[in-house]
Write a structure and sequence with these properties.
- By secondary structure, the chain is an alpha+beta fold.
- It folds into 2 domains: 160 residues, 2-Layer Sandwich (Fructose-1,6-Bisphosphatase, Chain A, domain 1); 114 residues, D-Maltodextrin-Binding Protein, domain 2 (3-Layer(aba) Sandwich).
- The protein contains 9 helices and 14 strands.
- A 7-stranded mixed sheet has the order 1-2-3-4-5-6-7, sandwiched between helices. Strands 9-8-10-14-12 form a 5-stranded mixed sheet, with helices on both faces. Strands 11-13 form a two-stranded antiparallel ribbon.
- Helix 5 links the parallel strand 8 and strand 9.
- The protein starts with 5 loop residues before the first helix and ends with a helix.
- About 2% of the residues have low confidence.
Length: 288
């Protein structure tokens, strides 16, 4: 089923549907009413669930089943989806691609009216990402990366081939600490602006999401759990754009098929070697 050109072909086929999904998300944002929150413990950023999450996932599922019915698919709302049973699998397999989807990455941002939420769709093989597209509906743009080809950016009206190579100059010396990583802040705040999302998040003040690494708002971030559908996908894109990406131990991220629960055990993303060493040292010193 897989071929070197298939990831690009899949992105091209799905882009028109993702444009419609983006328009839908943008249209209803001001009217959205949250559904009962998902059970995500104390993580308010992961707990939110909206009509947009469910509707966008359904739209992508329909597009996939009608175009690439043999592909495996895992969407964030798979447990509530009426279509999960129609896919060949929800798992990584050695002989086929797995498509993953976060229909609204940053649902809490979305509910609070901010513009830095995303729709993230990824194409994975058993070992690594093959491609990722991250759409920012409210900012009328998207980023995409195909393995070993770099990261490209365009507005929503542009096709893949019309996008431009992403080029970031002088990113802000700001670090985003994901949920559960607040304890690292004291080791970093003397040298960097540190955004501890667990304690800093506000419904009235906009903070960068992980996608700030592509806009120059962030120069790095640390996440406790690199989920395939969102932060791990963005880490792949960051690496494609020249960032240093490792586990919290400083080692390369492991093959996807060795991971549990569709996630890495944390990740460090840094725009330069010195920053990576500082982030790694913070993790190491806390652990030891």
């Amino acid at each position: 089923m897989s071929s070197p050109s298939l990831p690009r072909e899949i992105l091209q086929a799905l882009l028109p549907h993702l444009r419609v999904a983006a328009g839908y998300a943008r249209q209803i944002q001001a009217k959205i009413v949250s559904l009962p929150a998902k059970d995500a413990g104390d993580n308010i950023l992961s707990a939110a669930l909206t009509d947009a999450d469910l509707s966008i996932q359904t739209m992508v599922e329909v597009a996939l089943l009608g175009t690439y019915p043999d592909l495996a698919f895992y969407g964030e709302e798979y447990a509530q989806s009426r279509n999960t049973k129609y896919f060949s699998s929800t798992e990584l397999r050695t002989n086929n691609y797995l498509i993953t989807l976060d229909p609204i990455d940053g649902t809490k941002y979305y509910l609070d009216g901010f513009d830095n939420y995303q729709i993230i769709l990824s194409i994975l093989n058993a070992d690594s990402y093959e491609a990722v597209i991250a759409i920012s509906p409210a900012q009328d743009c998207y980023y995409y990366a195909i393995k070993n080809e770099g990261v490209y950016q365009g507005n929503l009206q542009q096709d893949l081939d019309d996008c431009s190579r992403l080029n970031i100059n002088n990113s802000a010396p700001a670090i985003l600490l994901g949920w559960g990583m607040a304890h690292l802040k004291p080791a970093l705040q003397d040298k960097y602006q540190v955004i501890d999302i667990e304690n800093c998040y506000s419904s009235t003040v906009k903070f960068p999401n992980y996608n700030g690494i592509f806009t120059g708002e962030l120069s790095g971030w640390i996440t406790k759990r690199g989920k395939f559908i969102d932060s791990a996908a963005l880490a792949f894109m960051a690496q494609e754009n020249g960032c240093i990406v490792t586990g919290l131990d400083g080692l390369p991220l492991p093959p996807l098929q060795t991971c549990q629960d569709y996630s890495y055990n944390g990740a460090i993303v840094a725009s330069n070697p010195q920053l990576h060493q500082d982030l790694l040292a913070a993790c190491h010193n806390i652990e030891h």
